[in-house]
Amino acid sequence: ETLTIGMYGESYDFFVIKGVMEQLLAAMGIKEYEFRPCSDDPTFHPGRTARLYVKDKSKEYNYAAILGEIHPEAAEKMECPERTYIAMADVKTLIEASDMSRQYKQLPRFPTITRDIAIVVRDELYVAQLMDVIRKSGGEYLEDVELFDVYKGAQVPEGMKSVAFALTFRAAERTLKDEDVNIAMERILKNLKDEFDAQLR
What we know:
By secondary structure, the chain is an alpha+beta fold. It has helices at residues 14-27, 72-77, 91-97, 127-137, 178-196; strands at residues 2-8, 33-37, 44-55, 61-70, 84-90, 113-122, 142-151, 160-169, 199-200. It folds into two domains: 2-97, BirA Bifunctional Protein, domain 2 (2-Layer Sandwich), CATH 3.30.930; 113-200, Alpha-Beta Plaits. The chain contains five helices and nine strands; from the N terminus they run βαβββαβαβαββαβ. The strands form two sheets. The protein has a five-stranded antiparallel sheet with strand order 1-5-4-3-2. It starts with a strand and ends with a strand.
């Protein structure tokens, strides 16, 4: 059986669908895997495609999925929207590599603080690149990062886009103060500017 995941639109890119697959792997307890570039499948864009290999119980890597952007010519024939991304995974291979044992965590005792951030960056940058810097810069209290808007148009310069995220912060042992989050936000914005010349919108 094949599990197929699809998405399309300006908010999505290769790294988003790769992130979806990584979330699936984490949910299935698959910790050892590799994404290998793929350029020999005519259905997919050669520069935006990868094959996924997972390590089974015998420690051998087995092909498990292909994921990437549908080639423009194939998309036209299949009447798919532009910038369509799909992942096709072999369910049996994933199940054989899975580890469904669970470790349970205590429910959080303290509330979260949520901050929204909207930045203007070059259009060619991937959303996942921005999220990666945010996660690495957020510090110990950053619990979650969620994309909620990508905008190109009025008030945004040509060749640029506005990308907005919701950031959730929480401390395990105490209630966070605004000052704690302010420090993290300043660090995130600085690193986004240093890395991508991102401007706060």
